[in-house]
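Researcher: Structure for this, please.
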Amino acid sequence: MKQSARMPSAAGRHRATTMRQAHYANARHPRRKPMAHAAEHIRSWPKESREAAQLVIDAHGEPDEVTDSQLVWLAAGPWKRVVATKAFFQHDFPAPHIDAVESVIDYRVPPEKFAELAKFDGSVIAERTAGEVSARCHDEQANFLALNLMHDIVTGTRTADEARAYYAKEFADYRRKKPTPYMEKLRFAPGRDTADPDTRLLSDDDLARAKKEGEQHKA
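Model: Predicted structure, token format:
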């Protein structure tokens, strides 16, 4: 049974602090001890998504939520949540692979940058209202790469085309056994208070008039 991350012992606090400093500077909970339950749960999943989910289990241990179709880890490492799904998607950029692991962070993307992100990578998903951005790929390392390049695009460091070219280069460099700095960690801090409720256009008076017009029309 998992120990609560909110009320650890003194030894547990020291151990968690050391691990956070060494591996996840902005994590909110220590890594979880791997166990067998989730691995048993995904045994019936397709091989592709089962292998991808197992990588997350190996990294973060037991998930916080389990359903027939997905596993969810909350505050795992630098992520707000990680979702491994039974369903997977074929993705051919920059080379054929499957997408089955989504890593989510708090991040506000300006509306004018959405089109550029879509041009960069269809598996980078920006949620304006929720104030979240996620990347979905086969593993967390590829999600680090995608989200670091997302940040470059939003901050104007790279264009979408330049980000695509760099993604392909580092993807190949991993196989060349060369340095892959964008795959190692997030190179920026996720945001705070990133939700965007948008701007109200209809006042209470507007809604009352519309309701009255509807009632008159019905009569």
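Researcher: Any notable elements?
Model: The chain is about 40% helix and 15% strand. The CA atoms of residues 141 and 181 lie 10 Å apart.
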